[in-house]
Input
Amino acid sequence: MAAGFEGEDVAGVLEDARTWARLRVGDLIEPDEFLRRVVGLLLGAGIDGVGGRLELRPALPDAWKSLSVRRLRAHRTLLDVDIKRRAEWITVRLAVMFGPPIAIAVGWGGDQSVARVAVDEVPLEGTRGVFTAAGEHEVTLYLGLRL
Output
């Protein structure tokens, strides 16, 4: 599910949706493929070609405070992802539901900058959390000016 979103743009997906809703013919994008693309865009999901690392850079619309995705497939691993936005931070909870541990990088794809990051309450250097997920994890992206 996560591969193939690097070049996607929201305008292109929205135009596919408008065309599909108006015409409803079989040669247009299938509804399940459309949903896969929308979820991929909201999560900013992609697979790093070299290491096979799952990259997540969620960017929720301004009116959304949360997003939950169940059974996100990355290679042989299924993950549940819960994203919650607060005024000053973003919380991304990940749970490996099935399959082997997987390397993950979590950043923020929104218009605000990330000042610092913590994974499982451990502060990390940089503006994204990079770790191997096995079990449940919580990534906190603190927004604002970098100190």
User: Anything to note?
Assistant: The two ends are 36 Å apart (CA to CA).
